[in-house]
Amino acid sequence: MTKFVSRFVQDESGATAIEYGLIAALIAVVIIGAVTTVGTKLQSTFKAVSDKLA
Known about the structure:
The protein has 54 residues and is an all-alpha fold.
């Protein structure tokens, strides 16, 4: 039993998987923020062009 516990404590593969998950989540948040900002600016640009044509 102590061998199992010591092996479990020394195993860092779970921590590595959690770190990769957090990095992926952070990248996703940055991408969502960038797409939202670009989308808003693009929408206002198209509205300005539409107003000029009308």
